[in-house]
Each structure stands twice: as structure tokens, then as C-alpha cells.
Amino acid sequence: FTPSSSWDAAYERELQTFQDVGDAGEIWFGEESMIRIIRWLEKQKVPLDSSVLDIGTGNGVLLIELAKSGYTNLTGIDYSPSAIRLSEKVREKEGMSNIKLKVEDFLAPSAELSGFGICIDKGTFDAISLNPDNAVGKRKQYVRSLCSVLKPEGFFLITSCNWTKEELLKEFREGFEILEELPTPKFCFGGRIGNSVTALVFQRK
């Protein structure tokens, strides 16, 4: 697991690279996971003005893609100030001034972080789960935070490379029900087929 200081260092390096060459750096889950999320929103005919929160936005590239797809009410949060600086640079380069970006710790969200129709998580729940310092308590706090920022009937799209569908159902059973599992690439290992990535859509009760 990478403690927050080294995430910050990683984003600092990406910030430097972005300033030098205009490259947004690592996209943790690759293009297909972004396309998968956007396709689902389009298939559900989620209104383009729905409020969307990207939890652990990193370099903000998912928000840029959502903005390009026509979504207008977008917010990204990250607890790493360097990540937010990087995503601000990416936002400026793309000319997407309507994307809101904030430094926030999702485990202690500020009061104005509420009333979202859609929350998206690519890898943030994974990172919190790997925290050696009270991971179980942090996961429970994550679910509480999610309940406080996502409005009832709101959608939660989670992409994870650490948790199976069954485990995620258990983690989010209080307050959420599963709507569907999104198809993800399969990998084959020793004759057994498994998923390297799990992508689920929950709805807040």
C-alpha cells in the first residue's frame, strides 16, 4: 500500500511531467473502465445535468471524458493536493472550466459535499481498504460517507481490482442494493478464469 505522502509524491512527479510534456500521466484503470462507466450512464439515460462526484479523482481524466460526453455538473475530490493541482492543469488544458475540483478527505467529507445523484469510484475504495491502519473501520466510514453524499435512489459505480462482487455486496449491504455488474476483461490463470477487475452499480436505498 502507498501511504498518502507517496501518492502525493507520485502526483507531484506527474504534475512535473504534465508541465513539461502536456501528458496527464497514469490512468489507473485504463480507458476501458472510463468508457464502461460513460456507456452505462448513457444507456440509463442519466440526465446530462445530474450531479456527479468522482471520489479520488486523481488526474481528473474521467471528469474530462464525462464533460466531453456532455455532462455539465461534475465534481472531483482527492485528498492529495498534488492530484488536485494536476487535475486543475488537465482541466485548463482541455478548457473544461465547469468541472469543480476540491481537496477533500472522503472519510471526513465537508458539509457542502452532499446531494449527488451519482458517485463514481475507480480504485479509491481499494486504496482505503489496503490501509494498514484500521482498514475495517475506514471501510465502514467510507460507506457512511457515501450515504451522506449520495442522495436516496442515487447511483454508485465502483471499479475495484481487489474485491470480488460477493465481497463488495457484503461491504455495501447497508444502505445500498446492487443494480448490475458491468462486464470487465477476464483473465485466465492456471486454467481458471477470473476477473482482474470488478465493476458494479449500486443504488442507494
Automatic annotation (TrEMBL):
CDD domains: AdoMet_MTases
Annotated signal sequence range: none
Matching SUPFAM superfamilies: S-adenosyl-L-methionine-dependent methyltransferases (SSF53335)
Residue intervals of the Methyltransferase domain: 51-180
GO biological process: methylation
Pfam families: Methyltransf_31
Reaction catalysis annotation: L-lysyl-[protein] + 3 S-adenosyl-L-methionine = N(6),N(6),N(6)-trimethyl-L-lysyl-[protein] + 3 S-adenosyl-L-homocysteine + 3 H(+)
GO function term, MF aspect, one: protein-lysine N-methyltransferase activity
Keyword annotations of the record: Cytoplasm, Methyltransferase, Nucleus, S-adenosyl-L-methionine, Transferase
GO terms under cellular component: cytoplasm
Protein name: EFMT2 methyltransferase
Organism of this sequence: Nyctibius bracteatus
Gene behind this protein: Eef1akmt2
